[in-house]
């Protein structure tokens, strides 16, 4: 059989779950992982241990793969171009991926496309931050325009590389890494949404229902699919926006568009991710085709699967590590308490605050579905003990 | 974390799908496979290549496993006892498993329990078969009681090791292997059903909806969940029967009880399988918890998951190999035709008549759900070309 080989760079939980989704598809899955202990390396047969920052390692890995895709956005752009020059399809390709790697490039491109974003500007030093903030101060007031958000254009995730800056003195820290810094207005949002779409090389695209994402301490806590009380109009706008971004940027695979819903009923793009994304984990148990299966189908240019929900409500809650390193007893308890609970563990050592898994619940009553997910995640973390 | 290691003996598709189901559970999965090309060996990280008939190989494999379970029933009973004597939990254990290994032992035990079975007897030669057949001839007729079914008590599957015998001359062949032969009446059944249950060591058990299984040439073709037009009473009887067999035989893990539904509305036990089973594949996409996930939970003595269906109707159709060795183009076509189709490929080389995968479909309209599954399976095999 000519079933192809998908090579995935990065051994985290996204690769682990992509492998899981690839098994029924009959594809061969090959992994480039930093260590044999990484989440995906524990469960994949064909693993190369190596450093994705080394081009020779990438080239050796790519040999025998029909397509290369990614668990993270950190592979250097020039290496991706080298693989493409070698004739290996890289999906998403470097010209698309750079928009998920570099927030400065992303903002500039979205501006070109007229896609609504928070007010933003690349800033060169703390004085420039003060000027950027002042530009945002309401006219005729004496406000200084703070707080504003500063982000290093590369390398941040889950609240890392992001600062809420309330004064010029606060603004020194983000410049210390020597990476360009993007300033953004602090949006007074009503809530955060995510519009997830999948696009294939021949241009087929599917849109998942727009979800609500609730953050705690800068980390995604729960995702509700679909976003409650979202007007059809705004949901449609968000889906269209994500499909347009996927097309204009030439994305292949899963694209997560993280959005702010403003208090006056608009959506603004917060972040882009070009890979399966935490805001799409609900789809494993809540959609006809999961984001992981559709990502695999897209990078292989196979027809995409139906993204529609299977339940009225699906809730995903992230399981973070707590103080107690052994989750197995709590895990057993959660299974006993809720036989419908869908647990997804990543095989990672428990450390306080580390994402080590997630749970999905679904049903007709949102309050009940939310309670079940939150209870399980809290119990696994150890913040709920009964 | 103390997440345990499940060792599975046998590298077939059942092990492949059990590994898939174990990934979200966070357990470690270890495989003993005949070759690195076996279906499961392609997708599991921790694979030992070896012969399950060799006790030393089994012992080496079992070291570091928290429990041993099986993709097939062929491990010699004395080896299982040796592993248990070494202190390794074997689930299902040898005392249970022998009933799935030896049809003679199974029939004797079910007789003891008063579980309804086809009329049967161990026969010693063709003359004995003639006598057995005659005992079943309707009183006062001149019929000879043929046809009858002959089965070798060990080693048969998918119609192999099973003969429909119409005369004394026909009856020579089954005795050639030198294995004891079981004669059974040929039941004039209305249809075949399967009652699938899962039982854990501490005695928790769950019952899946009773399904209808349709065979073509002795091989399972389609499974419909739940069995259409089955009375609640007979469905309940079948589930109770399976739960009782699981308990009385001390089964741990998934138990498939293949049943004949007679034309006068009774159920008779045809076969037992103590592992995930083809008649339960629908549960991957059609039930809250799949048979594979529940098998893993059971062998680890974890609380079992909800076995209830997620859709009104789910249909599984086996994909058999056809004349054309490359299925990929047909596979792509099936995905394009039906974005809701759930394809499960086993990574096996296509050979005519070989099970190389299955498809699941679900929905509210049984005719439509059946058509979609049959079309996809037929198209993949090459018997439907449009």
UniProtKB/TrEMBL annotation, chains A, B:
GO biological process assignments: 'de novo' IMP biosynthetic process
The protein's Enzyme Commission number: 6.3.4.18
UniProt entry tagged with the keyword Transmembrane: no
Gene Ontology MF terms in the entry: 5-(carboxyamino)imidazole ribonucleotide synthase activity; ATP binding; metal ion binding; phosphoribosylaminoimidazole carboxylase activity
Binding site for ATP: 103, 151, 184-187, 192, 270-271
Catalytic activity: 5-amino-1-(5-phospho-beta-D-ribosyl)imidazole + hydrogencarbonate + ATP = 5-carboxyamino-1-(5-phospho-D-ribosyl)imidazole + ADP + phosphate + 2 H(+)
Domain of life according to the entry: Bacteria
InterPro entries: ATP-grasp, ATP-grasp_carboxylate-amine, ATP_grasp_subdomain_1, PreATP-grasp_dom_sf, PurK, PurK_C, PurT/PurK_preATP-grasp, Rudment_hybrid_motif
Pathway in which this enzyme or protein is active: Purine metabolism; IMP biosynthesis via de novo pathway; 5-amino-1-(5-phospho-D-ribosyl)imidazole-4-carboxylate from 5-amino-1-(5-phospho-D-ribosyl)imidazole (N5-CAIR route): step 1/2
Pfam families cross-referenced by the UniProt entry: ATP-grasp, PurK_C, RS_preATP-grasp-like
Any one of the GO CC terms: cytosol
Keywords assigned by UniProt, alphabetized: ATP-binding, Ligase, Nucleotide-binding, Purine biosynthesis
SUPFAM superfamilies xref list: Glutathione synthetase ATP-binding domain-like, PreATP-grasp domain, Rudiment single hybrid motif
The keyword Cell wall biogenesis/degradation is annotated on this UniProt entry: no
ATP-grasp domain: residues covered: 107-300
The protein's role, per its UniProt record: Catalyzes the ATP-dependent conversion of 5-aminoimidazole ribonucleotide (AIR) and HCO(3)- to N5-carboxyaminoimidazole ribonucleotide (N5-CAIR).
Family listed: Belongs to the PurK/PurT family.
Subunit structure: Homodimer.
HAMAP family: PurK
Designated name of the protein: N5-carboxyaminoimidazole ribonucleotide synthase
UniProt lineage: Bacteria, Bacillati, Actinomycetota, Actinomycetes, Kitasatosporales
Gene (UniProt): purK
């Amino acid at each position: 059989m000519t079933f192809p080989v998908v090579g995935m760079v990065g051994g985290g939980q996204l690769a682990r779950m992509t492998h899981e989704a690839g098994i029924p598809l009959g594809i061969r899955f090959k992994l480039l992982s930093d260590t044999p202990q990484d989440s995906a390396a524990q469960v994949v047969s064909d693993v190369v241990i190596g450093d994705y920052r080394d081009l020779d390692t990438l080239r050796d890995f790519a040999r025998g793969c029909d397509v290369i895709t990614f668990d993270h956005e950190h592979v250097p752009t020039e290496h991706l171009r080298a693989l493409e020059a070698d004739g290996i399809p890289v999906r998403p390709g470097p010209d698309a991926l750079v928009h998920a790697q570099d927030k400065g490039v992303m903002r500039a491109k979205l501006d070109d496309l007229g896609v609504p974003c928070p007010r933003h500007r690349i800033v060169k030093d703390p004085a420039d931050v003060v000027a950027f903030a002042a530009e945002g101060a309401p006219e005729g007031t004496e406000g200084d325009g703070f707080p504003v958000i500063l982000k290093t254009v590369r390398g941040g995730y889950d609240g890392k590389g992001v600062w809420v800056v309330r004064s010029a003195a606060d603004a020194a820290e983000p410049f210390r890494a020597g990476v360009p810094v993007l300033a953004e207005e602090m949006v007074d949002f009503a809530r955060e949404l995510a519009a997830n779409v999948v696009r294939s090389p021949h241009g087929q695209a599917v849109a998942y229902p727009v979800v609500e994402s609730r953050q705690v301490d800068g980390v995604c806590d729960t995702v509700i699919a679909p976003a409650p009380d979202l007007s059809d109009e705004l949901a449609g706008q968000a889906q269209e926006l994500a499909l347009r971004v996927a097309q204009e940027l030439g994305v292949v695979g899963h694209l997560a568009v993280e959005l702010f819903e403003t208090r006056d009923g608009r959506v603004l793009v917060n972040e882009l991710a070009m890979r399966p994304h935490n805001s799409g984990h609900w789809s494993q148990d809540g959609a006809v085709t999961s984001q992981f299966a559709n990502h695999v189908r897209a990078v292989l240019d196979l027809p995409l699967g139906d993204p529609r929900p299977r339940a009225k409500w699906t809730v995903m809650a992230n399981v973070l590590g707590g103080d107690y390193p052994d989750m197995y007893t709590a895990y057993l308890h959660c299974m006993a308490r809720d036989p419908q609970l869908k647990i997804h563990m990543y095989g990672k050592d428990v450390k306080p605050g580390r994402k080590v898994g997630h749970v999905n619940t679904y049903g007709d009553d949102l309050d009940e579905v939310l309670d079940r997910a939150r209870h399980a995640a809290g119990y696994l973390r150890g913040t709920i003990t009964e």
